[in-house]
Amino acid sequence: MGRDKALLETAGVPMWQRQREVLAHAGAVEIFLSVRPEQEWARRATGFTAHLHDALSTGGPMVGLTAAIERASHPHVAVLAIDLPKMNAEWFAALLAACAPGVGCVGRRGDFFEPLAAIYPRELKWLLWEALVRGEFSLQRLLADAIARQLMTVREIKATQSRLFENWNSAGAA
Prior knowledge:
The protein is of the alpha/beta class. Helix content is 30%, strand content 22%. Helix 2 (61-71) packs antiparallel against helix 4 (125-134).
């Protein structure tokens, strides 16, 4: 994209702050910010339990998810990508209602899971570690395995909810 999406603004609020507020309104008690060490703005970002840095820079979101699950003191971890400007707390409330002890929930459209606006159980850490050791960084594959093992449930995304998953992946998005 050429610039840090976390600093893009929607309604005059930087995305990092907006996403933190969405999670807080959804009831999140611990909120982590997953950032790269060179993202200096994050040092000034307030309202987070901790800042997490990826231990493996080439592992993508799976590495950040693993770090959050390892650090969390609560049984579930909600993940919200920085580039989903239309996501809301109601989506997470619906996911949470579908969770159970040791079981998280992810949205799906057709054959595609939406792993970056999902709730994961801490019990998923073993599958995450196994995938990372194998060098497999696909959350799609991981989620299929987690669902088969009954660690995750699926919430089908309705056509009216698709707008929640529109993301900013181009420089003209702001």
